[in-house]
Amino acid sequence: MAAMQSHLLIVEQRQAELESAIGKAEKRLKKSEDELSLQLAEVEQRLCASLDSSLGRHNEQLRTALHGVLELLTKEEERRVALEEAMEHRAAVNERAWRAELLAAFRAAEASIQASLGIATTRAEDLSTAVDARLAGLTLQGDTLAEELEALRRAASETDARVATAAEEIAQRTEASTAEYELQLGHLSVPNTARSMLSTARLILAGHLSVPNTARSMLSTARLILAGHLSVLNTARSMLSTARLILAGHLSVLNTARSMLSTARSYAVVRRANEELSAAQAHAQREHAALAIAHSSLCTAHEAALAQLAHAAAAAAERLSQSEHDTTEALARALEDAQHDASEARAQARLEASEALARAQQQVASCSDETADATAATAAIMEQLILVERRAAQAEVREHELASELEALGDLREIAERRAAHAEVRERELASELEALGDLREIAERRAAHAEVRERELASELEALGDLREMRRLASQIEAAEEISSMEILRQETNAQLDLLRCQLDEAEQRRAEAERRAEQSATQAAEAERRAEQSSTQAAADARALARERARAEVAIEEMERSVQRRDSIEQQRLAEQQRRAEQQRQAQEAAEAHKAAVEAAYAAAEAAWEDERRELTAQCEHADARAFQSEGLCHELGRVRT
User: How far apart are CA 36 and CA 611, in angstroms?
Assistant: First the structure.
C-alpha cells in the first residue's frame, strides 16, 4: 500500500513535471509569439513610416513636376496665343495696308483714266464742233458758189443769146447799110463802108466777147475759191486724221497704263506670293527640323521608356520571385519547425505516458490487492493522456492554421502574380501607347510631307497663273498647315510630357522598389527565419497595398492629365472654330473686294464702251464730212467740166 502510494506520488510528481514542462513550453511559445508579433509590428511600423516618407517625397516631387509641367504648358499656351494674336494682328495690318495701297492705286488709275478721258472727250468735242462749224461754213460757201455758178451760167447763156442776136442784127444792118450805100454812093464806096461796118461789128463782137472772158475769169476765180475750199476740206480731213491719231494714242496710252497696272498688280502678287512662299518654306523647314528633333527625342524617350519598363518588369519579377521564394522557404521552415516541435512534444508525451502506464501496470501487477486505487490511477493517467491528445489536437489545429496561413500566403502570391500580370498588361498598354505615339508621329510626318508637296504644287500653280484668289487660298492653306503643325507639335509636347511623367512614375516605382528591397534586406539581416517569413508575408501585403495605392495615384494623375489634354483639345477645337470663322470672314471680305473690283472693272468697261461709242460717232461724223467734201469736190469738177 505504501509502495502503491509512493508510486502514485511518483506518477503524480511526474505528471506535475510533465504539466509544468508543457506549461513552460506553452509559455515559451507564447512568449516567442509575442516577441515575433512585437518585432513584426515594429518592422511593419518602420516599413510603413519609410514607405510613407518615400511616398510623401515622391508625391511631393510628382506634385512639383506636375506644377512645373502645368506652368510650362500654361506659358506655352500663353506664348502660342500671343504669337497667334501677333500673327493675326500683323496679317490684319498687312491686309489693311495692302487694301489701302490697292485702293489708292485703283483710285489713282481711275482718276488718271477719268482725266485722260475728260481731256480726250473735250478735245474730241472741240474738234467735232470746229469740224461741224467748218463743214457748215463750207456747205454754205458751196451753196453760195453753186448759186453764183448757176447765175454765171445763166448770165453766160443770156450773153451768148444777146451776142447772137446782136450779130444777126449787125449782119442785117450791115447788109441793109451796104445795100443802101451801094445804091447811094456807088460801087466804089461800098467796100470801104463795109470794111468800116465790119470793123464796127468786130468791135461790138469784141465787146460782147469780153463778157464771156469776164465770165471765164469769174469761173476761174470760182474754181480757185473751190480749190481753197477743197484745201480747207483736206486740212479738216488731216485735222480729223490727226484727232483720230491722238485718240488712238490716248487709247494706246490708256491700254498701256492698264497693262502696266495689271503688270504691277501681277508683280506685286507674285512678289507677295514669293515672300509668303519663302516664309512658308522657312517655316516648313523649321517645322521639319522641330519634327526631326521631336522624332529623335521621342525615339530616345521611347527607347528609354522601353528599357525602363523592361528593367522595372525584370526587377518586379525578380523581387516577386525572391519574395515568393523567401516566403515559401520561411513558411516551409516554420511549418517544419512547428511540426517537428509538435511531433517531438507528442512523442515525448506519449513516451512518458507509456512509461508511466508501464510502471503503473507493473505496480498494479505487483500490487493486485490495490486494484481500485490502480484503476483510479489509470483513470487519472487516461485523463492525462486525453489532455495530451487534446494538446496534440491543438497542435494539429495549429498545423491546420499554419496550413491555412500558407494557403492564404499562396492566395497572396496569386494576387501578387495577378497584379504582376496586370502590371505587365499595363506595360504592354504603355508600349502600345508609345507605338501609337510613334504612329501619330509618322502620321504627322506624312501630313507635313503632304503639306510640303501641296505647297509646292500650289506654288507652281501660282507661279503659272498669278491669281490673287489662289494666293489667298494658298495663304489660308499655309495658315491651316501651320495651325495643324502647331497642334501636332503641342500634342507631341503633351505626349512627351506624359511620357516624361510616366518615366518619372517608373523611376519613382524603381526608387520605391529599391527602398523596399533595402528594407527587405535590412529586415532579412535583422530577423530570423520565422520573423523573415512573417515579415515577407506582411511586407508582401504592404507592397501590394502600396502598389495598389501608387497605381491608384498614378491612374488618378494620368486621368488628370488626360482630362487636361481633353480640355486643351476642346480649347484647340474652339480656337480652330474661331479661326475658321475668321477665315470665313476674310473670305467674305475678299469676295466683297473682288465684287468691288469687278464693279470697278465693269465701270471701266462701261467707260470704254462709251468712249468707243463716242469714237464711232466722231468717226461717222468725219466720214460724213468726208463724203460731203467729196460731193462738193465732185460738184466743182462737174462745174469745171460744164464750163469747159
Answer: 117
Confidence of residue 189 (pLDDT cuts 50, 70, 90): very low
By the 8 A CB rule, do 138 and 233 touch?
Answer: yes
Which residues touch 309 (CB under 8 Å, ≥6 apart)?
427, 430, 431, 506
- Contact partners, residue 406, CB within 8 Å, separation at least 6: 331, 335
Q: Evaluate whether 381 touches 353 at the Cβ level (below 8 Å).
A: yes
Task: Please give the Cα distance from 102 to 114 (Å, whole number).
Answer: 18
Higher pLDDT, 624 or 527: 624
Burial 551-589 (b: 16+ CB within 10 A, else e): bebbeebeeebeeebeebeeebeeeeeebeeeeeebeee
Range among 357-366, 540-549, 588-597 rated most confident: 588-597
Beta carbons within 10 angstroms of residue 297's beta carbon:
13
Q: What is the DSSP code (8-state) at residue 368?
A: G
User: What does the pLDDT average to over 6-10?
Assistant: 67
| Residues whose CB falls within 8 Å of the CB of residue 633, separated by 6 or more in sequence, listed in order | 226, 230, 233
Identify the residue whose cell numbers are 494576387: 415
Mean pLDDT rounded to a whole number for the chain: 64
CA distance 359 to 355: 6
Q: Going by C-beta distance under 8 Å and a sequence separation of 6 or more, which residues neighbour residue 378?
A: 357, 360, 364
* Torsion sign (Cα): 468, 473, 477, 482: positive
Whether the per-residue pLDDT at 578 is higher than 80: the answer is yes
At 187 the pLDDT is: 45
Q: So what's the pLDDT on residue 483?
A: 60
Q: Place 363 in a pLDDT band, splitting at 50, 70 and 90.
A: low
pTM of this prediction exceeds 0.85: no
In angstroms, the CA 473 to CA 86 distance is: 21
C-alpha cell at 609: 464702251
Quote the CA–CA distance of 50 and 517 in Å, as a whole number.
12
C-alpha–C-alpha distance, residues 84 and 576, integer Å: 12
How many residues belong to the chain? Answer: 644
CA dist., res. 158 & res. 149, Å (int): 14
CB atoms within 10 A of CB 142: 22
Rounded-to-integer distance, Cα 287 and Cα 293, Å: 10
At 364, the amino acid letter reads: V
Cα(403)–Cα(339) distance, integer angstroms: 11
